[in-house]
Every structure is written in structure tokens, then in C-alpha cells.
Specification:
heterodimer; A: alpha+beta; 5-stranded antiparallel β-sheet; 7 helices; 12 strands; about 40% helix; B: alpha+beta; Glutamine Phosphoribosylpyrophosphate, subunit 1, domain 1; 8-stranded antiparallel β-sheet; about 35% helix
Chain lengths: ~250, ~270
């Protein structure tokens, strides 16, 4: 009989965390802003039908980075949970905090009990009522190990999220318009990547606070091009090079 | 995945986008609709005449506002016409309690599919989901709590308005031009039959619907006519390429008032 290797719990969890972090860091980024009209989601995503940002309920949306198959299962489970709550109780009883709590429990369970943690990071966002001024908007971040945090006005997730946050947070001001927020986010993401970003590589959606019903909507190509002021935004370095060539 | 902490097993196969299938698998108590009463008439209010007709750019759906319980008027302002989703409407006749609940479940079913799949069900798909719900209601229908809805909407794929009627067993039949059901359904139907033609305008279709309800209320005790004293008028909704839109009370009142002249000519004068 052989004695199994002893591996300390600290080591096991540290290994799992590192595995999950690496998986998530490989993915593309998302920037989520609170604007004057609601919440704006800007994701780098060249696949037009495999969404990273989706509707959960009337005033709640879901954004995720990491492995698509994993966060897609969590999204579906979230829609089921929200629809069940809304049908069994009432539509007003569905809220982001409860949903983020269940996501946190689920991811925490999987992180400690399963061999492989989920390589995902989630954001559950909710806009307040049409009469509210934005102070009731909520952004909950849930990480792969089940940690939950109530975030402020700007959230970045995915590959190099911290650097991206550094780039965008100086430009943030409360009550910023959608157009300015969108351009700032896309510029920062393009700079970060060193690639141009535009209508074909972006997924943009929003929760519109003034909409009394289902507040979630996706921004189509035409509207996106109009908001960006063109089909693409180039990274600053490349734009400068072009200027000096000319 | 083991315990998912209340999120349910997200990886289960089957009719994955159906909210009803999900409820049946995980929370059957929410769907429980068993009744053990033989005399349904005395137990709950019944809702009556509903109709739908196709016009040039979609459909018009209308319903009176009366619910009866035996010989008594249980409600003067019940709502029988509902938004099913962005491009469809549903109206109810039969036992009011189970019918209103069925509409609520149907609305969630359509929205749930839309969110999970990222696109709406086809109009035929929606009609089929409603048929299944009526089929599930069969045991209650046998005890007198039958629900007979009318479903209509704008078919975005085929660019036309379409109307579906049902029977108590969940049978689903498409009607080409118009249909009316409920206790005053026959009267409403024969009125529409004489006036319907291809390519009606929205205004014409709405006023035919309102007059048909007036005729039904004239013949059927369980159908309520316009209540001028309280200002209660039928519920009317339009579904066209731009989607579902309820017709507001003020418009309905003015259409009704302009129809009154014609009605007076037809029925007015001294009582003979």
C-alpha cells in the first residue's frame, strides 16, 4: 500500500487559483461604465452571435469573460433563476444582489470541491427605476473562486483588466454620456491591444434606465459606427505613426 | 457539476429553452393545477367574448370586459386581451382564474426562450407552445375549468398577420381571416363575416371588432357591452410590423361614439 502524497490545502487552492487566472487572462476584455442614461457594456468580441453580454431580466444584465462554455451555462442558469423568481413571486422581486449571491455560492462551491475551477469572471449589473438618478444602479463582480464585490462606476474584466482600468478610470466622470464613455473605452482597449477596434470586433450593449420594462438592448452596427464616428478606432501609437508618415 | 447552489443543473438536455419544461423538472409545485370540484360554474368567474381579425398590415384583437359567475356579474372590467410578446397577442375565454394564470406562464415562456436563445420563437412555435399549455389543462377542463384562448400576431418571417384558435383538448387551428370565441363568439363571428374583406385599414378593422362585440353583448348575457356610465370599453390591441400596441380607451370611445349613429339607425327608434 502506498501513502498518497500530502499536498497542503494552501497549495491546492493556490494552484487552482493560478490555473483559473491564467485562463481568464488569455481572454479578451470588457469595460462596463455607468453613464448618464444607464449602464454601458463594451466588449471586444469578434464573434457576432456568441455573446459575452446578455439580458437576464427586466433591469439586469450579465457580462462575462473567460471560457465561453462555462459562462454560457451560468448565464442560462441565471435566466432560469430570474424567470422562476419573477413567475413564482413578482417581477419586482427579481434583483441583481440575490442573483450575484447565487453565482457566488455556485462558483465558490466549484472552486473548493471540483478538480478544475471555472475559468470565468462575471458581472451582474442592474439599473434602477426610470425615476432614479443612477444611485440605485448596481454592479456586482463575481470571481472564479466565488468572491463577490459591489463595484463602483467602472469595471474592467478579462485579459490585463488592471492595466485597462488604469487607462480608463482617469477619464471617467459621473454622468458621462454614452458616446463619450464608448469612445473612451474603445480607445483604451485598442491602445491596450495595439490593434484597431471597430464595429466588426466589438460587442456593445446597454441597460437604459429610462426604459420602464426590459431595459437591455444591443447596439447594432449602424448605431455603433455612428457613435464611434467611423467603423474603427485605431490605437494612439499607430494613429501617430500614420500622422508622421503623412 | 455537483451542487450548483440553487442555480439548477444548467447542463441538462431536453427542451432547454422552455421555461415550462424547466419548471416541470425542477419546481413542479409551481405548475400544480389540480382541482377536485365537480361544479365549476359556481367556483370562479368565467370570461366571454374575444375576437381577432386580420387587416392590411397585421391583426386586431378585442375582448369585452365582463366576467360572470353563474347568473351574477363578477367583474365589469376584467382584462381579456394581453400582450404575449413584442409581436403577438393572446386573449382568453373560459374559466378566468386558470386562463389569466395560463397567460402569465405563456408570457414568461416566450420571454424565457427569447433570452436563452437570443432570438424570438417563430409565430407558429409560439402557437404550438400555447397548445401544449391548453393540453396540460385538460384535467381541469374536464372538471369545468376549461380555457380557450385566441392567439394572433404578426409573423415576421412571412410578413403577415396570423390568427390561431384552439379547442379544449389543445387542438390548434389556424384561421385565415378572423375568428371569435367565447359565449358570444358565434354572434361576433357572424357579424364580422358580413363585413370583413381583404385589405381592411386599421381603423376599419378596429371598428368592425368593436361593433362585433356590441352585437355579441346584444345577444349574449355573459358578454358585456360598452359601459358608458363608468367609461368601461372593450380592450383592443393591434399587432403590426412595429409590434404589439394597445389601443387607448379614448380612441376606442371615439370610434364607438362614431359607430353609435349607425347602431341607432339599425336598432333605434321607438320600442316595438
Amino acid at each position: 500500500m502506498t501513502t498518497p502524497f500530502y499536498v497542503s490545502p494552501q497549495q491546492v487552492l493556490a494552484d487552482r487559483a493560478e490555473y483559473a487566472r491564467k485562463g481568464i487572462a488569455r481572454g479578451r476584455s470588457i469595460v462596463v461604465w455607468q453613464t448618464d442614461t444607464g449602464i454601458l457594456f463594451v466588449a471586444e468580441n469578434p464573434m457576432p452571435t456568441l455573446h459575452k453580454v446578455s439580458e437576464i431580466y427586466d433591469r439586469i444584465a450579465f457580462a462575462a469573460v473567460g471560457r465561453y462554455n462555462e459562462f454560457e451555462a451560468l448565464r442560462v442558469a441565471g435566466v432560469r433563476r430570474a424567470d422562476l423568481t419573477g413567475y413564482a413571486y413578482s417581477r419586482e422581486d427579481v434583483n441583481a444582489r440575490a442573483l450575484a449571491g447565487v453565482y457566488s455560492q455556485t462558483l465558490g462551491q466549484i472552486f473548493t470541491h471540483e478538480l478544475k475551477p471555472m475559468e470565468v469572471e462575471l458581472l451582474v449589473a442592474e439599473v434602477g427605476s426610470p425615476e432614479s438618478d443612477g444611485s440605485d444602479d448596481r454592479l456586482y463582480r463575481v470571481t472564479f473562486d466565488g468572491q463577490i464585490s459591489d463595484e463602483g462606476d467602472v469595471v474592467t474584466m478579462g485579459g490585463a483588466a488592471d492595466e485597462l482600468l488604469e487607462k480608463v478610470k482617469d477619464h471617467f466622470s459621473p454622468g458621462m454620456g454614452d458616446r463619450e464613455a464608448l469612445r473612451t473605452a474603445v480607445q483604451a482597449m485598442a491602445d491596450q491591444m495595439g490593434n484597431p477596434l471597430g464595429v466588426k470586433t466589438l460587442e456593445v450593449a446597454r441597460l437604459d434606465r429610462s426604459d420602464p420594462g426590459r431595459a437591455f438592448s444591443r447596439m447594432g452596427h449602424d448605431e455603433l459606427a455612428e457613435m464611434l464616428g467611423g467603423d474603427e478606432i485605431e490605437p494612439v501609437a499607430q494613429a501617430e505613426e500614420k500622422d508622421s508618415e503623412a | 457539476m455537483t451542487d450548483t447552489g440553487g442555480l439548477g443543473d444548467a447542463t441538462r438536455w431536453g427542451l432547454g429553452s422552455s421555461f415550462v419544461a424547466h419548471l416541470r423538472a425542477t419546481n413542479p409545485e409551481v405548475l400544480d393545477r389540480r382541482f377536485a370540484a365537480p361544479l365549476a360554474e359556481d367556483l370562479g368567474p368565467h370570461a366571454t367574448t374575444i375576437l381577432a381579425l386580420r387587416y392590411e398590415s397585421g391583426i386586431v384583437m378585442a375582448g369585452d370586459r365582463r366576467a360572470t359567475m353563474g347568473m351574477a356579474i363578477e367583474s365589469r372590467n376584467i382584462q381579456k386581451v394581453f400582450r404575449a410578446d413584442a409581436h403577438a397577442a393572446v386573449a382568453i375565454a373560459g374559466a378566468a382564474g386558470p386562463a389569466v394564470e395560463m397567460v402569465r406562464l405563456f408570457q414568461v415562456e416566450l420571454e424565457h426562450y427569447e433570452k436563452i436563445e437570443g432570438r424570438s420563437l417563430s409565430l407558429t412555435g409560439k402557437a404550438n407552445r400555447l397548445a401544449e399549455m391548453i393540453r396540460q389543462n385538460m384535467p381541469a377542463a374536464m372538471q369545468g375549468f376549461g380555457v380557450i384562448p385566441l392567439f394572433a400576431g404578426y409573423d415576421v418571417l412571412h410578413a403577415t398577420g396570423r390568427i390561431f384558435k384552439y379547442d379544449m383538448t389543445g387542438g390548434r387551428y389556424e384561421e385565415g381571416d378572423f375568428h371569435a370565441t367565447g359565449s358570444g363568439g358565434r354572434d361576433a363571428r357572424s357579424f364580422i363575416k358580413g363585413r370583413w374583406s381583404e385589405g381592411l385599414t386599421e381603423d376599419a378593422a378596429v371598428s368592425i371588432g368593436l361593433e362585433a362585440l356590441f352585437e355579441a353583448a346584444d345577444e349574449d348575457a355573459a358578454t358585456g357591452g360598452p359601459d358608458v356610465v363608468r367609461g368601461i370599453y372593450p380592450n383592443v390591441a393591434v399587432v403590426d410590423p412595429d409590434g404589439f400596441r394597445p389601443v387607448d380607451d379614448a380612441t376606442i370611445r371615439s370610434i364607438f361614439e362614431s359607430a353609435v349613429e349607425g347602431l341607432r339607425e339599425r336598432y333605434g327608434g321607438e320600442v316595438r
